[in-house]
Amino acid sequence: MSDVHISKLRTKLVTEDRTYKQISEDILDTLERKPTKAWLICISISALFMMIGFATIGYEISTGIGTWGLNKTVGWSWDITNFVFWVGIGHAGTLISAILLVFRQKWRTGINRAAEAMTLFAVACAGLFPLIHAGRPWLLFWMFPYPNTRGDLWLNFRSPLLWDVFAISTYLTVSAVFWYMGLLPDLASIRDRTKSKMRKTIYGLLSFGWDGSNRTWHHFEVMCLVLAGLCTPLVISVHTIVSMDFATSIIPGWHTTIFPPYFVAGAIFSGFAMVLTLMIITRKVMNWENYITIGHIEAMCKVIVLTGMIVGLAYATEFFIAWYSGNEYERYAFINRATGPYWWAYWTMVSCNVITPQFLWSKRLRTNVVFVFILSIFVNIGMWFERFVIITTSLHRDFLPSSWVMYSPTWVEIWTFIGTFGLFFTLFFLFIRFFPGIAVAEVKSVYRHGRD
Amino acid sequence: MKKDFVLASFECDLKLLKGAEKAVDKNIEIYDIYTPFPVHGLDDVMGIKRSMLPYVTFGAGIVGLCLALGLQIWTSAVSWPTIIGGKPFISIPAFIPITFEITVLLAAHTTVLAFLVINKLFPGKRPLILDPRQTDDLFIVMIEKSKVNVDEVTALFKEHGAVDVKVQNVELNP
Fold first, then answer.
1. Closest by Cβ to A157, choosing from B54, B72, B137
2. pLDDT in tens, A82-102
3. Domain map of chain B by residue range?
4. Is A378:A60 a contact under the CB 8 Å cutoff?
5. Cβ–Cβ of B35/A214 closer than 8 Å?
6. HSE-CB for A347 with a 13 A CA cutoff
7. Among A177, A360, B101, B156, which is most exposed with the fewest C-beta within 10 angstroms?
8. Closest approach of chain A CAs to the CA of B75, in angstroms?
9. Shortest CB distance from A237 goes to which of B82, B97, B108?
């Protein structure tokens, strides 16, 4: 990769003038200080919710899935909704770290580290749901092909649910190593800067003896590019396969061919909303406004407008096709979504996902951090409702009217979901405290962007 | 193994690039350069051969592809053939998603492992630290003392903006 000529017309990626040393200080010095009160309060609250969530999961596993509000008609609801919700959120991190690397979008350096961490934690939360939905999580290994004593009874490799097992496992492990390899140079930087002996030992072990030799850097950059190239189709495949969990079935409302692109766009949409929610708080709390700039927020808002429009187009398309198909069950499924007993969920989804992003066409609103923060939360809510609408409203009207029911979650499902938020934020707060939340080496390498 | 090296330190990556270029022009052999972030252009100056990692990725990907397809075909059509949904025993389109995932899984992890092995990085390895600032804001060119005239090298690097040029006994392969 040769040196790319950088036009002076480009905007600065790091807004204020800094020396390389100051960049390290700005990002790494927080790790050296005692935790602030705000951090302690935040992590205590999230850890508390996490504990309640785990206790609830413990109760659910020891008692059974009967503690959930599911019934014979609605056999999937909050569990799968939450699973798809969390997997989708994870996608933004990989998009930023892999796809934007392939497209040489230099602004990714400010946010990629935290976004990738967010990916890992979101996928970990997502993975919990199929695990507990299995009812007997200790038999999880049944989902993997291993020589067994049941007379060579193998898995059904034609099932999208099994594809999901492979997709999610691959996604989680590959994102984890990609993220960790990217951390090595910064962990080495912490090791060499710290005065504390304990930190030196721990970060010494964690940094794998990185010393910044140019030969290592050469392999490192090639590896990052290769991994980005692998992660780009991987991230698209993951949500495609998640959408096939539904699309390959014959339930009206699920059986549509536009699901893969529709789900992938939705995942990026929700993921960027979550990145915005987290980054807007983080840049304020950590004083990183210099590195995660208004420019970054604007760029992410533009991605949200684009993917939000794709999602809106998908809503319109599936509604039109349901009418145009002439299939009465398909048509009913969609009319029931918009006007049936769950109409409020449908219209929450449409207003949060299609209408709210339109505000971001205005530059004034796009650069208003408070406004963007509030809007990102609306998108998160909307995208959760999208999955709820797709899953629950398609199921609750069965083919036989005698089976028509309503579904509402029990406290177990609600607290499990809240618990995953606890888990997500606990992991994120721990990460931001003990690891460099911004890729220091990468920011240094793009510092000259927009400067002479 | 201990050896004497000339260490030229720079505080600016552009000056380092220029200095290293001039040194190579004068047939000074650069042993290695330590930088806090990748400096583009240095690879060409040092004449580093293109990394073979992509070949490793490709090979591992092929292995993953064959393994995954083989496993699915063997289990579904040979070991215990079962009719599922009226599909053929060997239903290739349905096997593609898992084949893709395993290909990526093996390719990615093998690439990372190969990267760690090639660069001998592992937890517990002692890094070669010439100056604690080398992972922060100092760029260090390392040249074997026995192969050059120290005064000439010092003059050259000083001229191109090195903040410090010194001879140091460095323990290699720590």
1. B72
2. 999 999 998 888 888 888 888
3. 2-50+128-171, 53-118
4. no
5. yes
6. 9
7. A177
8. 6
9. B97
Alpha-carbon distances of B58 from A216, A220, B64, B108, B113, rounded to whole Å = 20, 17, 10, 10, 14
CB contact under 8 A, B80 and A151: yes
Nearest to B135 among A169, A188, A205 (CB): A188
List CB contacts (< 8 A) between A221 and chain B: 38
| Interface membership of B3 toward A (CB under 8 Å) | no
CATH architecture of B2-50+128-171: 2-Layer Sandwich (3.30)
Strand partners, B32: B142
ipTM above 0.90, yes or no: yes
Classify residue B171 by its DSSP letter: E
Tens digits of residue pLDDT in B99-118: 999 999 999 999 999 999 99
Cβ neighbours of B57 in A, within 8 Å: 226, 230
Q: Nearest-CA neighbor of B71 among A48, A152, A326?
A: A152
Region A79-84 average pLDDT = 92
Give yes or no for a contact between A168 and A244, defined as CB atoms under 8 angstroms apart. no
pLDDT digits (tens, 9 = 90+) for B114-127: 999 999 899 988 88
Kindly list the residues from chain B whose CB atom is less than 8 angstroms away from the CB atom of residue A237: 97, 100-101, 104
Give how far Cα A281 sits from Cα of A181, A252, A433, B126, Å.
26, 41, 14, 37
